[in-house]
Every structure is written in C-alpha cells, then in structure tokens.
Design goal:
It contains 8 helices and 7 strands; from the N terminus they run αβααβββαβααββαα. The protein is of the alpha/beta class. The longest helix is centred in the last third of the chain and has 26 residues, at 192-217. The chain binds uracil and iron/sulfur cluster (SF4). The site of uracil has 12 residues, from loops.
Length: 218
C-alpha cells in the first residue's frame, strides 16, 4: 500500500466549494482527499443528471468501467438499471443518478480489479458530497440501490430484506424514500428462475417510483 503517499483528511467536507451548485461540486470533488480511496482509483465519479430531477437514484460506488469513464452506472450494473428503468417507464435522462461513495474501491487479482465494499468510515467520509447533491437537487423521491446506499441514508440497522419496496415518508433526505436491490446483485444470482423473480421485483419497485413521480409532477 502506498499509504504514505496518500495524505487524507477525515471527511469530504474539507473540500466542499463555497457555492453549492452541481458544477461547482463536481469540480471540487475532483480534488477530494477525504479518505484513502482517491489514491488508487482513476478519478472521482460524481453524480449525473438534471439539477431539477424529481427522482434521485443512489448506488454504492463506481465499478471498474465507471472508474475509467468517470460516469456512474455505465458498466454491467448500469445496463441492468437502464433496462429495468425502461420497463418501469422511467427515462434515465430525467433522473439524477449517483453513488454513496465517489471513488472505486477494489482489490487487484492479476490484471483484474475486483470490487471491494466501502467500509462505514469511507461511506461517512464521502457523505458530504451526497448530502450536497441532495441539497441542490431536492428530489421528491430518493431510491437507494442496495444495502450500502440504504444504510448510508437510513442508518446501519436498516435491513433491506425487511423493507425492500416500501416507501418511507418525510425522511430527512426527501419526502419519499424507497430502498430496493442493487442491480449488480441481480447479476450474481446463479439460478435462472430466482434471478428472473428478483429482476421482476426490482422492476416492480421502480414502477412504484414511476407512479409516485408522476403524481409529484401533476
Ligand atoms: N455499482 C454502483 O453502485 N454504482 C455504479 O456507478 C456502478 C456500479
Ligand atoms: Fe473523497 Fe469520497 Fe473519494 Fe473518499 S471516496 S476521496 S471521501 S470523493
């Protein structure tokens, strides 16, 4: 580990810009050293989408392809997400998509970079970016994709298995918050029938989101 060459502070808040707009935030996040993850990743992967989006999707952290592209959800998990959104009648251009953690965390196995889960300290260090994105966009609906995002927003005791597809109202983040599975969890289900069921449940959750979003715009 090159830890000595990777100075960090304790949180991303040390790098927040004075003016909180999406472009200022995106620019400032490029230089974040709020935790050690910046050191080995290629670049900060900031959120993407319109500043007036009604719905904000929050994943875990960028994957290998996102790390290279600098955009969230453009790899295999992104393709699953796009497909499910399309089936649910949600246009990706209209929603804001981001991650709980903005740098790719991985372990090297030969030439491959294998995703490794961010720890609670890294999630906490990175939260000021997410908080600022929410502060600017003010989404009516926040969708947590997977347990990491859900626990970052709802606390470490949150159980996705108990609360998948449920709307929480008047949360500190948004008037409506729903947690569902992470799209890449669907890629890892080996049994085809179970995978289809889990995918259908994911699409059903996104349909609830679509319906709620339509009501919010009326
Ligand atoms: N998985 C995530 O959680 N986010 C991405 O951007 C890509 C994969
Ligand atoms: Fe900063 Fe977040 Fe990257 Fe850590 S993961 S360096 S807190 S942007």
């Amino acid at each position: 580990m090159k830890t000595q060459a990777c100075p960090t502070t304790t949180s991303a808040k040390d790098f927040l810009p004075k003016r909180i707009t999406l472009s200022q935030l995106r620019e400032a996040a490029k230089g974040c050293r709020g935790c050690d993850l910046y050191c080995h990743a290629t670049q900060t992967v900031f959120g993407r989408g319109p500043a007036n989006a009604i719905v904000m999707f929050i994943g875990e952290q960028p994957g290998d392809q996102e790390d290279h592209a600098g955009q969230p959800f453009v790899g295999p998990a992104g393709r699953i997400l796009d497909q499910a959104m399309q089936q649910a009648g949600i246009s990706r251009d209209e929603v804001y998509v981001t991650n709980a953690v903005k740098h790719f965390k991985f372990e090297e196995q030969g030439k491959r970079r294998i995703h490794s889960k961010p720890n609670p300290r890294q999630i906490k260090a990175c939260r000021p970016w997410l908080e600022s994105e929410i502060q600017v966009v003010k989404p009516r609906i926040v969708v947590a994709l997977g347990a990491t995002a859900a626990r970052s927003l709802m606390g470490l005791s949150f159980r996705l298995t108990q609360h998948q597809g449920e709307f929480f109202e008047n949360t500190e983040w948004a008037p409506y918050l729903l947690a569902t599975v992470h799209p890449s969890s669907l890629l890892r289900i080996p049994d085809e029938a179970s995978r289809h069921r889990a995918k259908a449940a994911f699409v059903a959750d996104l349909k609830l989101v679509a319906r709620r979003a339509r009501r919010a715009t009326r």
